[in-house]
Amino acid sequence: MIEDPSAVAPRDAKELARTLLVRLADLEEGTTAYSYVRGTLVELNLSLVRYAAGRFRSGSEPMDDILQVGTVGLIKAIDRFDPDRGLEFSTFALPTIIGEIKRHFRDTTWAVHVPRRMQELRLSLVKAQDELEQRLDRAATVAELAERMEVSPEDVVESMTATNAHTAGSLEMRLADDSPDSRLAARLGYEDNRISRVDDLESLKPLIAALPERDRLVLSLRFVGELTQSEIGERLGVSQMQVSRLLSRTLAGLRAELTHED
């Protein structure tokens, strides 16, 4: 039994891992021996995870999370490895680990929903940008990127836009100075419900103008003068109940006219 697999020298770890992989293939899954050998293989090969994770180092994603995802890829590689094929385990495991990390970035680190096709295209875009920049000694144009990636220029532009979906800025972030108006939220448009009221009022004008004079007067006293129904009744010499019925009938008629126009 190996007390501390992490203390095994790299060359010895490689030979030991090869032996344990052959041993694991002969063990029954779920047994104590299988779990021990599998766990030891994980610890012996964590250097592969650290190497792969270093390629994805970024300020937006904690390295601990990347290492954890990479370890999941390592476990999958151990479970899928076939010693009889004659491959080096590291040659087989690295693509599996890297693929798992890429899937993590593609599926879980986007600030907003982006179609999977665009997420995958973005990875190709980054690779194409690096290759063309080194070859051309300048930033590649959209047309050059489209030709290199074998996609349309529109797809390249959309992929570039999708890149911005990895991060989201706070609405309280300052854009220029420290004044209150420099906040992003203060510069964003919003839905103004009063605009729809303007349309309604314009539509109501001819309908109100067509009402009998008494109905127009009651509406004016109620909604412009803001009198109560009792006050309107006193002014017109009728009961509050009559005013209520008149208002209800008039408003129902106006509502029906507006609905009919829509």
From TrEMBL:
<dbReference type="InterPro" id="IPR007630">
    <property type="entry name" value="RNA_pol_sigma70_r4"/>
</dbReference>
<dbReference type="InterPro" id="IPR013325">
    <property type="entry name" value="RNA_pol_sigma_r2"/>
</dbReference>
<dbReference type="InterPro" id="IPR013324">
    <property type="entry name" value="RNA_pol_sigma_r3/r4-like"/>
</dbReference>
<keyword id="KW-0805">Transcription regulation</keyword>
<dbReference type="GO" id="GO:0016987">
    <property type="term" value="F:sigma factor activity"/>
</dbReference>
<keyword id="KW-0731">Sigma factor</keyword>
<protein>
    <submittedName>
        <fullName>RNA polymerase sigma-B factor</fullName>
    </submittedName>
</protein>
<dbReference type="GO" id="GO:0003677">
    <property type="term" value="F:DNA binding"/>
</dbReference>
<dbReference type="Pfam" id="PF04539">
    <property type="entry name" value="Sigma70_r3"/>
</dbReference>
<keyword id="KW-0238">DNA-binding</keyword>
<dbReference type="GO" id="GO:0006352">
    <property type="term" value="P:DNA-templated transcription initiation"/>
</dbReference>
<dbReference type="InterPro" id="IPR007624">
    <property type="entry name" value="RNA_pol_sigma70_r3"/>
</dbReference>
<dbReference type="InterPro" id="IPR014322">
    <property type="entry name" value="RNA_pol_sigma-B/F/G"/>
</dbReference>
<feature type="coiled-coil region">
    <location>
        <begin position="118"/>
        <end position="149"/>
    </location>
</feature>
<feature type="domain" description="RNA polymerase sigma-70">
    <location>
        <begin position="65"/>
        <end position="78"/>
    </location>
</feature>
<dbReference type="Pfam" id="PF04545">
    <property type="entry name" value="Sigma70_r4"/>
</dbReference>
<dbReference type="InterPro" id="IPR036388">
    <property type="entry name" value="WH-like_DNA-bd_sf"/>
</dbReference>
<dbReference type="InterPro" id="IPR000943">
    <property type="entry name" value="RNA_pol_sigma70"/>
</dbReference>
<dbReference type="InterPro" id="IPR007627">
    <property type="entry name" value="RNA_pol_sigma70_r2"/>
</dbReference>
<dbReference type="Pfam" id="PF04542">
    <property type="entry name" value="Sigma70_r2"/>
</dbReference>
<dbReference type="InterPro" id="IPR014284">
    <property type="entry name" value="RNA_pol_sigma-70_dom"/>
</dbReference>
<keyword id="KW-0804">Transcription</keyword>
<keyword id="KW-0175">Coiled coil</keyword>
